[in-house]
Amino acid sequence: MDAINRTGTLADPVEFYGTKVGSRLLLGTAQYPSPAILGEAIRASSADIVTVSLRRESGAAKAGQPGGAPLAGQSFWQLIRDLGVKVLPNTAGCKTVKEAVTTAQMARELFDTPWVKLEVIGEDDTLQPDVFGLVEAARILSRDGFQVFPYTTEDLVVAEKLVAAGCEVLMPWGAPIGSGRGLNNPYGLRSLRAHFPGLPLVVDAGVGVPSHAAAAMEMGYDAVLLNTAVAKAGDPVRMARAFARAIEAGREALIADPMEARDMAAPSTPVMGRAVLG
Amino acid sequence: MTSNHAETIQAPNRAANAMRVRIVGGGVAGLTCAHAFAQRGAQVTLVERKAATGQGCSWYAGGMLAPWCERESAEPIIAELGFESLAYWRETVPDVPNEGSLVLAPARDLPDLRRFSRRTEGYEWLDGAGIAALEPDLDGRFEQGLFFPTEAHLEPRKALAALTAKLVGEHGVILRTEEDGFEVSDAADIVIDCRGLAARDTLSDLRGVKGEMLVLYSTEISLKRPVRMLHPRIPVYIVPRGDGHFMIGATSLENDERGRVTGRSMLELLGAVYALHPAFGEAEIVEIGADVRPAFPDNLPRLRRRGDTIYVNGLYRHGFLAAPALARRAAELAFDGTQFPEVMDEDHRQW
């Protein structure tokens, strides 16, 4: 754990592919009641990076002519651009390597960024990553100049292959997308953190409540990416703020070097020499 | 608004002394506005660029009059407009079945049903027997559901045809089809712009939200009322249209592409209704369609007045639910100068 920057402060940015960002909360942009509420939630969250799904919102240009400039989703994308945050396009919903690569290429053209959150979905019910397709797509995209943020499991070997494929960030799931179950496998996530002490690691997916996000940060994760927990909250703006605070709290706690848990009580005031009353 | 005081548009000194109103756009917004202005004694001309009224995105509407269900995800103003509109439709057009609506979820999505219930009112919890008592064909398929007894539904195409006939026959509304509302030469004291997304040429913050739907025909199953099926990604509703027809809707995609229906969307809609009842797997696909809903960034409808034009727009998913209530407000704005901040503030949610 030495490689984690414990001497840093909250003002210390997290760095992805050489880009420093201040906020350790990455927010998805799907499923909000309205773009206006999405905008307010992003502002309340202080997030510097938002992910945007291309697959669902793109129109005929995507289907007919992958190289052409997609126009159909323009107004929504313009709204996102107007927020002044950094866009991390994603390949949500893609099930094959080819589909993910094509979507990533379209995203690069549309948002003028080499960043891509790579999702290759392998299973419909759990939306579990197809790690074989993921590694292959990561290799293709990295060679093509992309800076890939792979959505993966906490599997160490897959993680190593992703790094070998060129990924300089890993985004293991906490739990299946949209499940809100939190960190399903804390042991696995801790191992991954210990295995890649210097690599930016982001818990992506499955986070339900702010305490889940705080736990990930206390574990030494560099950032948390979430969407549904904010978008589907009764008050997304308030929930966005709650997550921002939890992530700050978890990060600060990590830097503050928490005490170790112990089996016995340890009095916080001295007992020796205390006056005996009555 | 450019003026900070209520301003009444002056009716000219004509023989009939009636305000001459031109409505541009014959969808649900334009038709209900025509009705509201005609009821106030205006001489109304409605101009529709297509061959008939109700052929724009109103054509593809679900026709659910469900303010309580919408309350789950929409802001309170939508429910408020919805209650007023529900009463309007009941007294204005025939065939508005007062059967309520039903919200169901497959067992594994019951958390979504509980969340739905927390965010609205006007319902009762049903168990499997309660669901079967309302919809016998769903017997044994669901263990829990929400029933909203005060809600209703209508068939949008029939309702708008009936309203059009009423406007022309009873209110003397002049209907001009296949014409551009800004090129007709008749004089008008005021223009009500109800063009939906086409008004983006002047309302720059309008955007399109695509919706896809389909109509199925089956004699193996009958439903009396709209059923919403909750799902984390693909919420679907099914509205009985009578004679074995069911309208299934609707996707909601952030793009403004009219008309292209994707296989994926159909797969999702059909998958959801198949989960509701396998009989839908054997149903005939009668129609598939798509259009684009006009929406402002907060997905709330607006009246905007600029000079002698009032814009009625941004009805998003709530055309039938909001249009009559907005139309009444538009007429009161024009005739009485009444202000309606809840639907008139141009930027009450700054993007």
Give a verbal description of the structure:
The complex is a heterodimer of chains A (278) and B (351). With 278 residues, chain A is an alpha/beta fold. Helix content of chain A is 38%, strand content 14%. Chain A is built from 10 helices and 10 strands. Chain A has a 5-stranded parallel beta sheet. In chain A, strand 3, helix 1 and strand 4 form a beta-alpha-beta unit. In chain B, helix 1 (28-39) packs parallel to helix 6 (156-171), helix 1 packs parallel to helix 8 (319-336) and helix 3 packs across helix 8. The model of chain B is unreliable at 1-15 and 347-351 (pLDDT under 50). The chains are: A alpha/beta (278), B alpha/beta (351). The interface between A and B is medium-sized, with 24 and 27 residues. Chain A: It comes from Ancylobacter koreensis.
List the helices and strands and how they pair.
The complex is a heterodimer of chains A (278) and B (351).
Chain A: E1 14-16, E2 19-21, E3 25-28, H1 35-45, E4 49-53, H2 60-64, H3 74-82, E5 86-90, H4 97-111, E6 115-118, H5 131-143, E7 147-152, H6 156-164, E8 171-172, H7 186-195, E9 202-204, H8 210-218, E10 223-226, H9 228-231, H10 236-255
Parallel strand pairs in A: 3-4, 3-10, 4-5, 6-7, 7-8, 9-10
Antiparallel strand pairs in A: 1-2
Helix pairs in contact in A: 1-10, 4-5, 5-6, 8-10
Chain B: E1 20-24, H1 28-39, E2 43-48, E3 64-65, H2 67-71, H3 76-92, E4 101-104, H4 110-118, E5 124-127, H5 128-134, E6 144-148, E7 152-153, H6 156-171, E8 174-177, E9 190-193, E10 207-217, E11 227-229, E12 236-242, E13 245-249, H7 263-276, E14 284-295, E15 302-306, E16 309-313, H8 319-336, H9 341-344
Parallel strand pairs in B: 1-2, 1-9, 2-8, 4-11, 9-16
Antiparallel strand pairs in B: 3-7, 4-6, 5-6, 10-13, 10-14, 11-12, 12-13, 15-16
